[in-house]
Amino acid sequence: MSENARFRRQRGKGWVAALLAAAGFAGAIIAATPTAHADVPVLYPLYTWWNPDRGDNFTTGNLNDENSAVAAAYLPIRKEAFVYETQQPGTVPLHLFWNNARQDNFSTATPVGIDSAYSAGYTYIGVQGYVHTAQAPGTRPLYLFWSEARQDNVLAVDQTTIDSAYSAGYVLIRTEGYAPYA
Fold it and tell me: What's the pTM?
């Protein structure tokens, strides 16, 4: 091998080593995609939004629903808790429904809630995330409230939302599940 070829080869190795060191991989062997964190569940914030023109609360558990809330002129109120982005053991989907006549978003995770949504003329939109079916460490109840006067459903985990629902005349209907809370 010529002296120039040997120099270029050594310089190339130095460049790769410098790049790996800068990326925090000094001394590491690069292999296939790491799987060490594949089992760590990803959480997404569960937000409450309010549209004063519609008199509607909207709970969002993913970016698509957040974008829909913004596009429909909803105002962000607060983060209630979190939902899992993918199904985990002991969790069920949190479903989103919409009723055009009522101008109401409705989130539910129970078979009773799903039946209620369909029987009240709601249209199925999709899954917002996943919540626990039973109390687990680090979770809080996800309460469903209803206002007959406003024809509005609201999910509440945060005590401020719960207090606001009661003070606005909403009635507690049921616990829809349990959401991670931090």
Answer: 0.77
